[in-house]
Write a structure and sequence with these properties.
Length: about 230
Amino acid sequence: MTSESIITEDIEIRHLKQYVVHELGIILNERDDWKKIMSIVTVDCDPLKPLKYSAKDIKIVERAGKRNFPERGCTDIFLDEWGTSGRRRPRLSDLIMFLKKAELHQAARYVEVDVLKKPESPGDNTEAAEWLQEVIQQEEANNKTEYIGELIAFTFCDLERATDGFNRKPYPRRGNKLGEGQFGTVYYGKLKNGMEIAVKTLENNANYSSLNSDNTEAAMIPILLFENE
């Protein structure tokens, strides 16, 4: 590798290789993250100076990006404008600073690790941590008990845990199956808060034609809950 091909933090953004700009565009265009950087860039990259771009400027870049896509995306247009304006031309180090300030860790990691070839810190995997947090939050949302008026809406996971996986072993034999009728099976269940319930699952091939009008709505619900009083 020749010294001319080595990219350092001192390189001006306007001199970045096109493949670097392209990869940054893939990362920053997906959720319009380029706006986060453009909205915090300061004049001459000096934190003591005012913001360089207004909301109107961001709109102009956005419209230009839509007109020129896919040849040139918004990130490409923004970096071109930013990199060729001002008395002090922004460098790659400035881009990294603003990426981190905007908490765009994936883009910052790409520049530092893939472009500048800096070693990745084993304990600094922010992207993976954010992904794990999203998974945890989604799992909590899926298992959250919600209230609809005076009724309690349980998740499938709640019912599966309460009935020991819809254990079909008869209840007298330490199973959960209470009985089986024309329309489905009834299971004994116990929620995490100690509430005892009966869970009725309706069979897909059940004949609902004999249900009276009072039960028509219930027949449309895959799982029915009855408090075991």
